[in-house]
Amino acid sequence: xxxxxxTADKGANxxxxxxxxxxxxxxxxxDVDHRADAARQAILADLAGRTHELDQESRRxxxxxxxxxxxxxxxxxxxxxxxxxxxxxxxxSRQQKQLSDADIDRLVKIYESMAPRDAASIFNxxxxxxVVPVMTxxxxxxxxxxxxxxxPERAMMATQLxxxxxxxxxxxxxxxxx
Length: 178
Known about the structure:
Blueprint: H1 4-12, H2 28-31, H3 34-113, H4 116-123, H5 128-137, H6 140-149, H7 152-163
Helix pairs in contact: 3-5, 4-6
């Protein structure tokens, strides 16, 4: 009867008893499947190509990033310059308004000291951009006396502008067609 242990060993490793099995013989042409090697080489070549494309894309993105950062720096500089110019303009506007307020105050004193009839004759021809601010700051009693001496059309227009009603085209008179 055969030995149980020897039979068990043979079943576990059939090449153990000296039988030549595939893979035990040192023949490289038998060990390597050349089709798999070619596919592996193709995959590696494809991977290298994609890596090269990704490297190029990465360089292109880095170049774009540098361009964007440079553009951002230029825009920040322009924004800072714009803000400074805006501050300068606002300061100049405030100074001009203060000067303008002083000029209006001076004109108010001049027209309040005149006879209402004389001031009204000037207000009849004076631009409303001057008349309205001056009349706004005048003593109401003196302003009403000047309005009474103005032509009805000009007095009506001045009153509307003082009240904040926008100017209308022409003056409509009663008894006419328009």
